Automatic annotation (TrEMBL):
Top-rank lineage group of the source organism: Bacteria
One Pfam family recorded for the sequence: ABC_tran
Chain positions covered by the region annotation Disordered: 1-25
Alphabetized PANTHER family for the sequence: ABC TRANSPORTER ATP-BINDING PROTEIN
Full protein name: ABC transporter ATP-binding protein
Polar residues bias spans: 1-18
Xref: PROSITE patterns: ABC_TRANSPORTER_1 (PS00211), ABC_TRANSPORTER_2 (PS50893)
Listed CDD domains: ABC_subfamily_A
Domain ABC transporter stretches: 4-243
Source species: Pseudacidovorax intermedius
InterPro entries: AAA+_ATPase (IPR003593), ABC_transporter-like_ATP-bd (IPR003439), ABC_transporter-like_CS (IPR017871), ABC_transporter_ATP-binding (IPR050763), P-loop_NTPase (IPR027417)
UniProt GO molecular function: ATP binding; ATP hydrolysis activity
Length: 315
């Protein structure tokens, strides 16, 4: 049985009164999203701002209703069997929400109580140690730094030992140390059998951690495949250089340009030679020329730049 199953999920946010008055039918945030995440997978959900990632996670968490379609967790429908589905999930939210009146241990005990677990201190201690919070157990939530609060949110999501862990942008604005602590711990839980669903903007994180990835664009799944296959789909190399000059159109249309830095896909040495000679002929002076292997960001940019038609990639 799939750990998480999204079946033909669509979501339209209704228009505001003013929008309705102007004939605006509302916003289609998700369009026929279907995929399964198997037990034990480390799955990445990627997409630019506004692609629909948080909407999909909110529906999974039972916080938002889909306009059409079904979502289930370990076979429990998130609408009709909310409590059973919710018990399977440990959700680390994007926003820092916490009760300022409790200390860290009390916060975690309260959350355990919410799931009906009376004596949970052994697991709470293990969570505190693994997340580098052991010396903060008695600190009031108000006294914690932003990074520490985020660690508590992770511990809070895991108090009931959920088999499925959902992390919505957990490392946005988080320092390197916390990222490493968090990834080591989540990777360990995944090795021990937990399923992990991660949404992130950090593509190198997704590349390093996720065995399979779905990419969303404007509410549609535009790629769904093993990370290794997605990487194979990219041109295998990238030619990178700096220039102040304007590129000829036939090169510019394939280029990724960030300020003075230009990156062009190139399959092999012959193609690199070809690109360099085109640049020479066009009178484009280049500096700091180097080659690098394509990464997930290249795949992502390719897909996001592509036309609207969803690209069906089988698992
Ligand atoms: N409560 C809401 N009411 C109306 N529109 C909404 C609401 N929540 C989200 N949207 C819209 O739905 C679309 C998808 O938003 P969503 O937050 O799911 O995207 P996202 O992929 O999570 O983006 P980000 O990476 O910025 O978090 C966006 O166009 C957004 O403006």
């Amino acid at each position: 049985m799939a750990a998480i199953s999204f079946q033909s999920v669509s979501k339209t946010y209704p228009p505001s009164r003013t929008q309705r008055a102007h004939g605006n039918p509302g916003l289609r945030a998700l369009e026929d999203v279907s995929f399964d995440i198997e037990e034990g997978e480390f799955f990445g959900l990627l997409g630019p701002n506004g692609a629909g990632k948080t909407t999909l996670i909110s529906i999974l968490a039972g916080l938002s209703r889909p306009t059409a379609g079904q979502v289930s967790v370990h076979g429990f429908d998130v609408q009709t069997h909310f409590a059973d589905a919710r018990r399977q999930l440990g959700i680390v939210p994007q926003e820092l929400v916490f009760d300022p009146f409790f200390n860290v241990r009390e916060t975690l005990r309260l959350q355990s109580g919410y799931f009906g677990i009376a004596r949970n201190d052994d697991w709470i201690d293990e969570l505190l140690t693994s997340l580098g919070l052991a010396d903060k157990a008695d600190a009031n939530m108000r006294q914690l730094s932003g990074g520490m609060k985020r660690r508590v949110l992770v511990a809070q999501a895991l108090v009931h030992k959920p088999p499925v862990i959902v992390l919505d942008e957990p490392t946005a604005g988080v320092d390197v140390e916390l990222r490493q602590t968090l990834w080591q711990f989540v990777a360990r839980l995944n090795r021990e059998g937990s399923t992990v669903l991660l949404t992130t903007h950090y593509l190198e994180e997704a590349e390093a951690l996720c065995n399979r990835i779905a990419m969303l664009k404007k509410g549609r799944v535009v790629a769904l495949d093993r990370t290794s296959e997605l990487l194979k789909a990219a041109a295998s190399n990238v030619l990178r250089f700096k220039t102040d000059a304007e590129l000829p159109w036939e090169l510019a249309r394939n280029a990724r340009i960030t300020g003075r830095i230009v990156q062009l896909p190139a399959q092999n040495a012959l193609e690199v030679e070809h690109l360099l000679s085109s640049l020479r002929q066009a009178g484009v002076p280049v500096e700091d020329v180097e080659m690098r292997k394509a990464d997930l960001e290249d795949v992502f940019i390719d897909l996001m730049a592509g036309e609207q038609t969803p690209l069906e990639v089988a698992r």
